[in-house]
Description:
alpha/beta; Lyase 2-enoyl-coa Hydratase, Chain  A, domain 2; 2 domains; 3-stranded mixed beta sheet; 12 helices; 9 strands; 46% helix
Amino acid sequence: MPPGIRVRDRDAVRVLTIDNPAKRNAFSGEMAPSLLRELDRADADPAVRVIVVTGAEGAFSSGHDLREVLDDPETAGDPVANAAFTRPAEIRTPVIAAVDGPAYAAGFILALNCDLRVASPGARFCAVGAAIGLVPVGGQLSRLLGVVGYPVAFRWLATAAPFDAAEALRHGFVTEVHDDALDGALALAGSIAAVSPAVVAAIKAGLAHTLSDGLDAGRAAEPALAAVVRELPDGAEGVESFLQRRPPAYPDPPEDLHRRLGEVLA
């Protein structure tokens, strides 16, 4: 089977698998554009409530295929070619990285830009930029600060030294460590998929807005986001299910929800 992005659904969870095991799931050929398309396709589908990104056969991703980088050096820093790796932070659907083995270079950027990271004990992370003479991009100089803070981010970036799942967990870069990262990520995804998808989308939008524009902007956005969700049936279903002592059955969000949330934050 040629390298690519494999797609399967587990109920309301879309699983995207980076599949190039011969090269530790390095991105080559059309794999990065394909991942970008699949992320956008999942985000546009109201039935998909959570996306899980993982790698095939014991690796997340070792980054770009270095042979291709040598042939076309600008690929490694091209924002268009690398849009897939930052897209998880830009879409409204929550994205979880299930990391086993290496998440290096572009693989590290992809994991960083997911909302949550679940790792196996064998996971390894590395921001390689300083070691190969490239400025760390793709959120490494910005988003990483919101995850682990300055001292840890500086050390990881400035040393370009690999770190393991235990260190990642200690600093909050990963939220959970499981023997099987994908099983752990799917369990976490199931918990998110069971609550109101409209509220989850508003949470992601509000947190991202606060991180980019500051606390005052985030505080001001809260009532506007709440007003958007208040027009939907989720609130009534949540209260009724509580009173009836049954699990809630939240509907899929309207197709234009992401647009509406974006408009109130503009």
